Amino acid sequence: MAWEVQKATPKDRVYASGIAGGFAGGSVGALTRGRANIIPGAIMFSIFGLLGQTIYNSMDAQHTQELQLADTEGQKVDSRFWRRVADSKWSPMKALSDEEYENMLREKLLRVNAEIALLDESVEKLRVEHLKGSAGKDMGGTRGTDSP
Q1: DSSP assignment letter at 64
Q2: What is the pLDDT at residue 92?
Q3: Are 41 and 26 in contact (CB under 8 A)?
Q4: Which one, of 103, 105, 81, 85, lies nearest residue 95 by Cα?
Q5: pLDDT (0 to 100) of residue 145
Q6: Please, is 77 exposed, middle or buried when counting C-beta atoms within 10 Å of its C-beta (0-12, 13-18, 19+)?
Q7: If DSSP codes are grouped into helix, strand and coil, which group holds residue 141?
Q8: How do residues 73-90 score in pLDDT, each as one tens digit?
Q9: Mean pLDDT value of segment 47-63
């Protein structure tokens, strides 16, 4: 049958992206900078298309392999992009569960409460020193003179 659906292989996709990039680059080069830039534009955009599709194919194959491995082990894989980035060993970020986040907030609250308690003690000491100092001035400050 002529209308049979065929699945493109990764190699076919790379070739198609290279050809499409060449046509796009040649067209853009001709429209923006003239006839002399058709070939350089086609070459550069073909390279961009080839490399981009190759990188995409390798990342897609890796992701598919991870999904198949998790499926055979009976695990659920979160396939959202940012979750995978956060779970990566190279990422400076970490995805937290609700329990981990709650524990982290409790620890921070405990630290803040401890700092508040220390500051309250310091304020109380200063208040006592201030009261002692002002009481000493009131008692010994004047000697019964009537001078203004």
Answers
A1: H
A2: 79
A3: yes
A4: 85
A5: 53
A6: middle
A7: coil
A8: 766 666 677 777 777 777
A9: 93
